[in-house]
Heparan-sulfate 6-O-sulfotransferase (Parnassius mnemosyne), 435 residues
Amino acid sequence: MNSTEMQKSVSVQVDSDFALLLPSGAYEIKKMEPRSKLRKVILFCLLLSLFGMVAFGYFCPDQVCALSPRERVSESFALTYAETLGRPLPDVIAQPGLSYDEVLHDDFRFDLDAHDVMVFLHIQKTGGTSFGKHLVMDLDLKRPCNCQRARKRCHCFRPHSNEIWLFSRYSTGWKCGLHADFTELTACVGGELDRHEGSAVHRRYFYITLLREPVARYLSEYRHVKRGATWKGSRHWCQGRTATASEVPPCYTGESWRGVTLEEFAACPWNLANNRQTRMLADLALVGCYNGTLRHRTLDTERVLLASAKRNLAAMAYFGLTEFQKISQYVFEETFNLRFAVPFTQHNATVSGATMAALSPAQIAHIKRLNSLDLELYEFAKNLMFKRFEALKKRDSDFDFRWKHLGEVSPRSGVTEFDWDSNLEDATTEKYRGK
């Protein structure tokens, strides 16, 4: 007997033995049942799984069953951070305003006659006081801002209406809190403008900011605090509430930290001066607001904050760098198709520079460690700034003339003068908020 015949014999024998256990006439039916039952079981399991997923998603609360959108974003930031050094992150957060790339479209125009609003995110000691004054005093506009010197406030209205086109310290005051950050502004600006103008309007928002070399900025803030600045009017608003005293504890007792030494200033582990630029540009809700940025920060939360700050900065309609005033002016003018009637002044010898020269290498190294996130953010910003400058320069057929005559739009009585390190007009308490 060959192998094929042996297999048939075994098969027949198995089937015959199985048939002996069945009632008469049931053999053929039972022989087909195992496969049929398996199909039914599989189909039933699939239907049960589908019903379970639908019911689970419908009845189970979001806070119990799933990560919130921000938590998913936070996880995404943490996972992708290693691949994003020096580059903007994917667009995983809804953009609060028009991005730089959108602004550069050939048919784009910042429309003062429509509902376009420029929102200035003013980070402490980055030259924002200077730039803020340029915005309200030196732009060549059909209807210039009307500045009231006694109140240190300007009315920046559109050419044919009394709607506001600029949201900044000198035009609207600190409506969203003293030196409001990205998290505060994006949650606040629309509502504040609606209340101020008495109606809800569909607006296009253009976020702008300035950055400064981190060590110089940190020393400038130290000197400012040493003179008595406190910024007590800052709200530290995040996810619908103000940060508690335990989340943002003070570094000093009494009314101010006047007379503090650099060593004491740098020794406070929750000093808001540390990595201030990164924190103010990041979406703080990604790491649990201030609870995850000061007292309970980790390497993971720092990575998420830095990645978020890079992404938000790159997506803003405009940012400038304090150390590159002329380039910053040119990029602003070409981006918004607006012209300043004065050239920006480059102050290379600031008080902070003199302070830095007197520090030891160990002191500078310690300050750099405290501001490591800001240092990386600044390098990212500088690289991006020069790329944008070169791109704008290439498409400008009149670049040589424009560069030579930057700030010479029309005769003016003088140039706005101010000192970046002066605290004469810098609000340090809440008395200026919302006025």
